[in-house]
C-alpha cells in the first residue's frame, strides 16, 4: 500500500489465502454544493429515451456540460443525475413527487376530478384513490398492489363540493360536514362539527363506518392507530396513526395562515384553511378506534369532553388520516401537548418549530420537527457533498434566527415531546443556520444544511435511513418561531468505487489465467502480470495497484513483500500490466493481489485525495505459482495441486 493511501474495507475482509482480490478504491472528497439543485439546469431524458441508462447519461452529460437525469434510476421519491464531472447526484424526497400513470412517470397532482364511474379521484398520486361522488358508493376506496381498503358512510352522501384536493360533503349529519383530502400517498378525513347541537348527535358518540378490505386484514395497533395488513405477506399496506380531535380555541391562527399565504407561503391547512391545526388548538384529545371481530366496520369514538364539554369553541374537528407506509416519515412534537403524537404533521403541509409566544399561538408552545429519509442507495460510496433541504414557509419576522439540524434516533407514529426529550435521543448536531423566510419582505424559501459527514457515515455503515431533527437554537425567543414544509429532501453528490476486478480479468504471462487447478504450476520465468478491462461504473479513469505475498521463512508468515506504486491512470475499460521483480524468491508459493482505483488526480481540475478501498465478499479460486530455480541440472517439472482459496 503506497504511503498516504488510506484503505477502507466496505465489505467482507478476505482471508490470507485469497489473492488477486479486486480491491476497489474511490475518491473521498469534493466541495459542498450550495447553489441551485442540478435539476434546474439538467437535461431531462426525452419521451423517446424513457429509460436512459447510466452510461448513456454520462456520455450526454459530458457532451452537453450539463447534468442529465438517469431515467432508469427514477422512482416515486427519487431522481438521479449524471454530472459532467463523472459523478452522480441524487435527490431523496420525503414524499412521492411522481407516480406511474398510463405506463409513464407523471408529476404528482392531487387535484380532484370526476371519473367516468361517477367517483371523484386525484389526477396522479402514488396509490389508487377514489372518493364518493355522492349516493351510496363507498366514501373512500384506496388500492395498492392489488389490495383494497374501502370505507362507507352510514347513509347516503350528498354530491361533494370540489376545491383542489378537497371534497366536502355538507351536512352528512345535522350540523356536521365531512371533508376528504387527497395526498401524495393517501388521504385525510375530517369531520367538522359546527355547533353544540350538532355535537349532541347520537351518531357521533360512536361513528360506525362500513369497512371492506380485499386482500387485507384491518387491525388496531398498540399506539391506538390502525393498519391494513396484507393477508399473504403480513406487512402493512395502509396505515393510520391514532385519530385526533380538537376544537377552535387556538386563537386567531387563521390570521397567521392568511398572512403567510398572501406572501406565497404554502402553509398548513385544508382548502378552507381557517381552522387551527390539531397542535394549534387549546383542546386536543385522541379518538378511540375499534375494529370488531367481524371486520365489517370501523368504529370511531370521540372524546366527550372535547366534543361537547364546557367552554368548547366550535367547530370541533375529528380526523383520521390514512396513507401507504414508506421508509420516509416526518413528525412534529409539542411541549404543550407533550404526550400527544403529531405524526406526519396531522395531515397538514407544514408545521411549526421553536417557541410561539404570539397572540395567534394559544396555547403558547414550543415545537420541534423530525424527518426520516432513506439513505441505503449511498452504501459503499464516497459522498462528495450532501445537503438537507427544507422550505421555511413562515417566520415570525424577517430577523434571522438560528436553527439547528441534528441527527436523532428514529421516529414512529408514537413519537411525542416526552419520548424525544429522553437523554441521548438527539445524537449529534450536524449544522446550524441563521435565516428567516416567509414573512413580509422575505418570501418563503428553501433552507439548506450541510450534512456531508453524516451521510458519509451512513454510507460507510450501510444505514437504511437517517432521521434529522430541527429545533430553534433559542427556544425562549418568540422571534425564532418558524414553520417548515413536510416536503423536505436530501441532495447528495457521490462517487462509486471501481468495479471489482474478477478472476477472469487476471492473468500471468507465464502461468496463465487464474483458475481452479489440481496443483499450483511451477514457473521458471516471471514475466508480467495483467489486469484486463478494469472499469468504473461512473466512467472515471482507473488505475491499478498490484501486490504479492509470500512466506520468506523469517517468522513473519505470509505478508505483503512486494507492493509497487500505483500505475498511471487510463480510461475505464483499459488493461494494465507490470513486470514482476527478480527479487521474488525461488521455490516459494506466491499470492497475487490487485486493487482498482478511480483516484481524482486522473482528472484535471479536481483535488487529489486519499482514495478509499472496498473489498467484495467473493472468495476467488485460482492456482498459486511456485517459482523454480534456473534449470542448471534438470528441467523444471510443472506440477499442480489443489489449493482452496488461493489465487495467482
TrEMBL record:
Domain of life of the organism encoding this protein: Bacteria
Signal among keywords: yes
UniProt keyword annotations, A-Z: Signal
Signal peptide limits: 1-24
Region of interest (Disordered), residue spans: 246-281, 596-648
Skewed-composition ranges (Low complexity): 257-273
Claim: Signal is one of the keywords in the record: yes
NCBIfam families per the UniProt record, alphabetical: DNRLRE_dom
Protein name, as recorded: DNRLRE domain-containing protein
Species this protein is from: Streptomyces misionensis
Taxonomic lineage of the native organism: Bacteria, Bacillati, Actinomycetota, Actinomycetes, Kitasatosporales
Amino acid at each position: 500500500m503506497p504511503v498516504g493511501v488510506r484503505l477502507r474495507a466496505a465489505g467482507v475482509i478476505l482471508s490470507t489465502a485469497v489473492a488477486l482480490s479486486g480491491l476497489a478504491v474511490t475518491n473521498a472528497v469534493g466541495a459542498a454544493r450550495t447553489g441551485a439543485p442540478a435539476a434546474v439546469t439538467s437535461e431531462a431524458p426525452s419521451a423517446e429515451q424513457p429509460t436512459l441508462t447510466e452510461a448513456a447519461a454520462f456520455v450526454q452529460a459530458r457532451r452537453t456540460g450539463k447534468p442529465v437525469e438517469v431515467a432508469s434510476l427514477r422512482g416515486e421519491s427519487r431522481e438521479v443525475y449524471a454530472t459532467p464531472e463523472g459523478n452522480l447526484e441524487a435527490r431523496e424526497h420525503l414524499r412521492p413527487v411522481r407516480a406511474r400513470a398510463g405506463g409513464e412517470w407523471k408529476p404528482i397532482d392531487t387535484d380532484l376530478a370526476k371519473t367516468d364511474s361517477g367517483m371523484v379521484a386525484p389526477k396522479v398520486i402514488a396509490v389508487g384513490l377514489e372518493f364518493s361522488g355522492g349516493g351510496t358508493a363507498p366514501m373512500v376506496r384506496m388500492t395498492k398492489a392489488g389490495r383494497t381498503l374501502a370505507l362507507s358512510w352510514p347513509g347516503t352522501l350528498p354530491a361533494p363540493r370540489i376545491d383542489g384536493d378537497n371534497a366536502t360533503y355538507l351536512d352528512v349529519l345535522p350540523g356536521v360536514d365531512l371533508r376528504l383530502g387527497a395526498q401524495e400517498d393517501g388521504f385525510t378525513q375530517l369531520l367538522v362539527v359546527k355547533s353544540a347541537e350538532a355535537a349532541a348527535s347520537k351518531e357521533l358518540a360512536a361513528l360506525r363506518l362500513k369497512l371492506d378490505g380485499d386482500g387485507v386484514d384491518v387491525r388496531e395497533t398498540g399506539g391506538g392507530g390502525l393498519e391494513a395488513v396484507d393477508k399473504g405477506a403480513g406487512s402493512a399496506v395502509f396505515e393510520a396513526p391514532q385519530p385526533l380531535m380538537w376544537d377552535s380555541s387556538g386563537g386567531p391562527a387563521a390570521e397567521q395562515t392568511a398572512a403567510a399565504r398572501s406572501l406565497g407561503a404554502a402553509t398548513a391547512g385544508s382548502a378552507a384553511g381557517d381552522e387551527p391545526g390539531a397542535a394549534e388548538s387549546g383542546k386536543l384529545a385522541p379518538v378511540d378506534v375499534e375494529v370488531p371481530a367481524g371486520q365489517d366496520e370501523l368504529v370511531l369514538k370521540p372524546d366527550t369532553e372535547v366534543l361537547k364539554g364546557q367552554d368548547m369553541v366550535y367547530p370541533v374537528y375529528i380526523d383520521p388520516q390514512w396513507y401507504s407506509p414508506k421508509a420516509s416519515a416526518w413528525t412534529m412534537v409539542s411541549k404543550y401537548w407533550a404526550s400527544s403524537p403529531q405524526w406526519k404533521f396531522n395531515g397538514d403541509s407544514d408545521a411549526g418549530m421553536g417557541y410561539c409566544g404570539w397572540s395567534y399561538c394559544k396555547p403558547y408552545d414550543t415545537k420541534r420537527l423530525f424527518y426520516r429519509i432513506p439513505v441505503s442507495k449511498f452504501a459503499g460510496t464516497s459522498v462528495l457533498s450532501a445537503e438537507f433541504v427544507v422550505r421555511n414557509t413562515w417566520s415570525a419576522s424577517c430577523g434571522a434566527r438560528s436553527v439547528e439540524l441534528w441527527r436523532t434516533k428514529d421516529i414512529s407514529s408514537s413519537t411525542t415531546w416526552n419520548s424525544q426529550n429522553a437523554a441521548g435521543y438527539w445524537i449529534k448536531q450536524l449544522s446550524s443556520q441563521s435565516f428567516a423566510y416567509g414573512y413580509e419582505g422575505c418570501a418563503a424559501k428553501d433552507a439548506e444544511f450541510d450534512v456531508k459527514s453524516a451521510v458519509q457515515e451512513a454510507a460507510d455503515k450501510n444505514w437504511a435511513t437517517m432521521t434529522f431533527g430541527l429545533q430553534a437554537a433559542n427556544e425562549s425567543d418568540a422571534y425564532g418561531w418558524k414553520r417548515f414544509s413536510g416536503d423536505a429532501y436530501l441532495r447528495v453528490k457521490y462517487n462509486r468505487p471501481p468495479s471489482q476486478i474478477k478472476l477472469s480479468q487476471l492473468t500471468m504471462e507465464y502461468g496463465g489465467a487464474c483458475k481452479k487447478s489440481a496443483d499450483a504450476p511451477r514457473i521458471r520465468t516471471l514475466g508480467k502480470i495483467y489486469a484486463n478491462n478494469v472499469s468504473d461504473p461512473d466512467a472515471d479513469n482507473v488505475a491499478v495497484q498490484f501486490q504479492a505475498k509470500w512466506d520468506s521463512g523469517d517468522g513473519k508468515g505470509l505478508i505483503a513483500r512486494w507492493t509497487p506504486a500505483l500505475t498511471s491512470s487510463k480510461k475505464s475499460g483499459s488493461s494494465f500490466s507490470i513486470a514482476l521483480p527478480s527479487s521474488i524468491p525461488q521455490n516459494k508459493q506466491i499470492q497475487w493481489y490487485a486493487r482498482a482505483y478511480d483516484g481524482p488526480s486522473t482528472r484535471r481540475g479536481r483535488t487529489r485525495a486519499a482514495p478509499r478501498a472496498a473489498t467484495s465478499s467473493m472468495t476467488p479460486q485460482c492456482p498459486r505459482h511456485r517459482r523454480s530455480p534456473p534449470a542448471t541440472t534438470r528441467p523444471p517439472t510443472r506440477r499442480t495441486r489443489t489449493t482452496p482459496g488461493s489465487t495467482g
